[in-house]
């Protein structure tokens, strides 16, 4: 019934397993962010890609074309 009981030990093990999973997810996220930072520091191509796709920016003299594809759903 107390801190040394079997049920408490199982609860602590469950919590520990969950924390280990969270740590693994955060480590993977950190690795992805570190790779992105490395790419941004390496060259302007990554910066241009983010500016285009995330911010909708264009270079001087570029023209934006939006392609709208037809829906693949059957129309009734």
Verbal overview:
With 76 residues, the protein is mainly alpha-helical. It has one domain. The chain is built from two helices and no strands. It has helices at residues 6-42, 44-53. α1 (6-42) crosses α2 (44-53). The longest helix is centred in the first third of the chain and has 37 residues, at 6-42. The radius of gyration is 25 Å and the shape is elongated. The mean pLDDT is 85.
Write the layout of secondary structure elements.
Layout: H1 6-42, H2 44-53
Say how many strands there are: 0
Distance between the termini: 64 Å
The succession of helices and strands, N to C, reads HH
Q: Rg to the nearest angstrom?
A: 25 Å
Distinct helical segment count: 2
Question: What portion of residues is helical?
Answer: 55-70%
Q: Which residues sit in consecutive blocks of at least 5 with pLDDT less than 50?
A: none
Entry summary:
With 76 residues, the chain is mainly α. Helix content is 62%, strand content 0%.
Features:
elongated, 2 helices, 76 residues, mainly alpha
């Amino acid at each position: 019934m107390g801190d040394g009981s079997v049920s408490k030990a199982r609860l602590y093990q469950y919590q520990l397993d969950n924390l280990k999973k969270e740590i693994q997810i955060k480590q993977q996220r950190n690795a992805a962010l570190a790779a992105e930072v490395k790419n941004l520091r390496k060259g302007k191509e990554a910066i241009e890609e983010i500016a285009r796709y995330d911010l909708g920016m264009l270079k001087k003299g570029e023209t934006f074309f939006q392609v709208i594809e037809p829906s693949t759903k059957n129309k009734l």
